Amino acid sequence: MFKFSCNCTTGKGKKKKQSAPFSPVDLWPLIDNKSFTNRYLVIGICPNCEKHVVLLVETRKSDGVKFEDEQWEEKAFKTQERCEKERNRIDYAVPTGKLNGFVYGKNTGWMNKDGVITTTKQRSCDWWGNTTLIKTQRFNKH
Ligand SMILES: [Zn+2]
Questions:
Q1: Which has the higher per-residue pLDDT, 137 or 50?
Q2: Rounded to the nearest whole angstrom, what is the distance from the C-alpha of residue 8 to the centroid of ligand 1?
Q3: Which of 20, 26, 63, 71 is the most exposed place for a label (fewest CB within 10 A)?
Q4: Which CA distances in Å does 21 have to 28, 47, 81, 117?
Q5: What is the pLDDT of residues 61-85, one digit of tens each?
Q6: How far apart, in whole angstroms, are the C-alpha atoms of residue 98 and residue 79?
Q7: Does the pLDDT at position 26 exceed 90?
Q8: Residue 95: what pLDDT?
Q9: Ligand 1 centroid to 88 CA: how many Å?
């Protein structure tokens, strides 16, 4: 599972060493923009020095190349503020624990040619792009 690494140190003298990597505190799925898809923001706070960190992950639509941009402190706050507007708040589902790391739910509605939603697929997604289908629900046709 992904962990952030801070360059701060713990201990003194000979016991001084780099602080231990730490787990993120939150993950925000973000809406697609013009050029990028599979976007999310990973947020962390160093438990040792309390520095704020974010990792913006996005995949370029044109060639599928994945970008990761890690920002600390002031820049992290600015990136997070910007992403707040792009946060995808639709339907967080309860993760099932099949995927490792941070997992979020994603519900997709499938429409028929008349524009009526006939099926919903509930998926559990982790932030490396892995997806597990939890359940498919079909609506009765009338
Ligand atoms: Zn630190």
A1: 50
A2: 4
A3: 63
A4: 20, 9, 24, 44
A5: 999 999 999 999 999 999 999 998 8
A6: 30
A7: no
A8: 46
A9: 29
Does the structure show a pLDDT above 50 at 117?
A: yes
- C-alpha 25: how far from chain center: 11
Q: Which residues contact 104 (CB under 8 A, 6 or more apart)?
A: 27, 29, 92, 93, 95, 124, 125, 127
Q: Model's pTM, two decimal places? A: 0.63
Higher pLDDT, 27 or 91: 27
Distance CA 138, CA 133 (A): 14
Cα of 17 from ligand 1 centre, angstroms = 11
* Adjacency order of strands within the sheet including 52-60: 26-30, 36-45, 52-60, 66-72
Rounded Cα gap, residues 58 and 63, in angstroms: 12
Ligand 1 center to 15 CA (angstroms): 16
